[in-house]
Design goal:
single chain, mainly alpha
Length: about 300
């Protein structure tokens, strides 16, 4: 609602964000958030609203997926190709979220359920193809260019989160009975790729922790609150859920213990980030009010 209101009140600012190669991919959070809320509502026994949210998210995705890459292709420059920013990978997060909610709402569309299952399998494949393309560029930039501490932002954790949500989506397909014979024949392929995606997401976690140690421990960059820190919380939570769902799809119970451990780690990260937000907001509030207090004291002295 705030995004719609902002679009009407400040259309020029919204258009500036939409045509900015560094900002446009952040709009894929509209897709992912609708799908997450829709899944939560579905799990509480409501079928109609999640379908509406999925259709809204699908329409938003169809517009953004070509508009965003068009902006990236025609408006970016060599200096503006900030691959390590991580926002590119939000396109994969939004794509795979459509798969997860789509598998839940497919039975609610009646005779079109087979078409929905075919569509979400296609979206899963598109998300993986995009991930392979973009992460190759990211890894190339990360390992073959000199990286400054400011380049390693918390948004880099999205590279792990995108692999985790792709694992979650693949596990959801494995746990769903589409009723489409051709889709059943590719289940072994889906299971194999899902396992590789889970392994890839797992591989990234120690490396990302190493980057944080280098940035804040070796290069002595102070660890201060920034909204980008929330970019760490979502991937950790998604990795926990992806591990649980893949353990169910692959019938491998040991992963459930890992999922539970990562759940508590993600909760701790959420509380730590929330605490940073509260402290920063309080300090900002105090800084805003101090000049007024100083003026009051001066007036009293006079």
């Amino acid at each position: 609602m705030l995004t719609v209101l902002r679009s009407f009140r400040f259309p020029a600012a919204v258009w500036l964000d939409l045509t900015n190669p560094r900002q446009v991919f952040s709009f894929f959070t509209l897709v992912a958030s609708n799908d997450v809320v829709g899944a939560g509502i579905y799990l509480r026994g409501v079928a109609g609203v999640p379908l509406d949210l999925w259709l809204l998210a699908l329409f938003t995705w169809c517009v953004l997926i070509y508009f965003s890459f068009g902006v990236r292709a025609f408006r970016s420059s060599t200096q503006g190709a900030d691959i390590l920013h991580g926002d590119w990978l939000l396109a994969i997060v939004g794509t795979e979220s459509l798969v997860i909610l789509g598998a839940l709402v497919a039975p609610a569309v009646g005779n079109l359920d087979h078409a929905v299952f075919v569509l979400i399998n296609m979206l899963w494949g598109v998300g993986i193809a995009l991930y392979g393309s973009l992460v190759a560029l990211l890894v190339y930039h990360l390992f073959f260019y000199r990286n400054a501490p400011d380049d390693l932002t918390p948004l880099l954790w999205i590279v792990m989160g995108a692999a985790a949500i792709s694992t979650n989506a693949g596990s959801t397909l494995l746990l769903s009975d589409s009723g489409v014979p051709s889709l059943r024949t590719i289940r072994p392929f889906i299971e194999g790729v899902t396992f590789i995606l889970w392994a890839w997401a797992t591989w990234w976690i120690p490396l990302l922790l190493l980057f944080e140690i280098w940035k804040h421990g070796v290069r002595r960059i102070p660890l201060t609150y920034t909204p980008m820190l929330w970019g760490i919380v979502f991937p950790l939570g998604m990795y926990s859920l992806a591990s649980l769902r893949f353990s169910l799809a692959a019938d491998f119970p040991p992963l459930r213990a890992l999922s539970l451990g990562m759940l508590w780690i993600s909760v701790a990260a959420w509380f730590a980030t929330l605490l940073g937000l509260v402290i920063t907001s309080w300090r900002s509030f105090q800084a805003t009010n101090h000049p007024l207090r100083d003026n009051d004291t001066a007036e009293q002295r006079l």
